[in-house]
Amino acid sequence: MPFIKSVQNNEAPVSIYYENSGTGLPVVFIHGWPLNGSMWEYQVTQLPQQGLRCITYDRRGFGKSDRPFGCYGYNTLAGDLKALLDELDLHEVTLVGFSMGGGEIAKYFSLYGGERVAKVVLISAVVPFMLQTEDNPDGVPQEAFDKMLKEMTDDRPGFLEEFNKDFYGVELLNQPVTSAYLANALTQTLNASPIATIECAKSFSSTDFRDDVPKINVPTLIIHGDKDKTVPIKATAEQAVENIKGAVLKVYEGAPHGLWFTEKDKLNQDLIDFI
């Protein structure tokens, strides 16, 4: 199986699993929490037909990648992304980050100046700042994240089963999601390291990317659903578009957080048109 080695924070090398489909301009997909690279199934089966090389990878602690005990902060995660781009020697890359994956992109530009990257797509992304504070009133209250962490610690399968319902907008009549798909999503999330699941939740809920986001200096497309209950649009996409020069925001009306699946045909076309 294809792996690259990433060495961060003077730790032992961590094996990062990746998959590669198609040829042409490279598109690197960064998955959301608590999924893995296989979430992009409906993109990597379609975009290569349009002359694009699609690369997915499993974040450390998820999927087939190694599962270290610690080191799940965004500086480390952005370092893993850099290791992938360097090892595969990719150029003119489009980075596509979903949810938590938007944080890797922002931190990558902040730490490495966007080396090798030509374009960015942020989908339902957590940037610039998820947490509600005095100067970020539209964010999510700390109590909500505390409750989430407690429920994960007490009963991770039970929490994730309920979490997925909001994630995919199960209660929205215009967003039917089959029980089979929800079962598959639950299996995928339960396959992750419990430690990585908790530590990454702490990272995306508390990391302030407001100084990082303006450093994204390439053409950027931001896509967000206006019914996203997981990552509120007012605290994220609506703020990000104001802080990335030239960025374009596309709001998917009625779409939940997991719009890469519920709106896959529309999303795929928007990706093809942008790239």
Secondary-structure topology with pairs:
Layout: E1 3-6, E2 14-21, E3 25-30, H1 41-44, E4 52-57, H2 74-87, E5 93-98, H3 101-112, E6 117-123, H4 142-154, H5 156-167, H6 179-190, H7 194-206, E7 220-225, H8 237-243, E8 248-252, H9 259-262, H10 264-274
Parallel strand pairs: 3-4, 3-5, 5-6, 6-7, 7-8
Antiparallel strand pairs: 1-2, 2-4
Helix pairs in contact: 2-3, 4-5, 4-7, 5-6
The name of the CATH superfamily reads Alpha/Beta hydrolase fold, catalytic domain
Supply the number of structural domains: 1
CATH topology: Rossmann fold
Radius of gyration using CA atoms only: 17 Å
Catalogue the unreliable spans: none
- Helix tally equals 10
Strand content is 15-25%
Distance between the termini: 28 Å
Largest beta sheet: what is the strand line-up? 1-2-4-3-5-6-7-8
Supply the CATH architecture.
3-Layer(aba) Sandwich
By CATH reckoning, the class would read Alpha Beta
Number of strands: 8
What structural class do helix, strand and pairing data support? alpha/beta
Keywords:
275 residues; Rossmann fold; globular
Please, could you describe this protein's structure?
The structure is a single chain. The chain is α/β, with parallel strands linked by helices and 275 residues long. The protein has a single domain, classed as 3-Layer(aba) Sandwich (Rossmann fold). 37% of the residues lie in helices and 17% in strands. It contains 10 helices and 8 strands. It has helices at residues 41-44, 74-87, 101-112, 142-154, 156-167, 179-190, 194-206, 237-243, 259-262, 264-274; strands at residues 3-6, 14-21, 25-30, 52-57, 93-98, 117-123, 220-225, 248-252. It has an 8-stranded mixed β-sheet. Strand 5, helix 3 (101-112) and strand 6 form a beta-alpha-beta unit. The longest helix has 14 residues, at 74-87. The two termini are 28 Å apart.
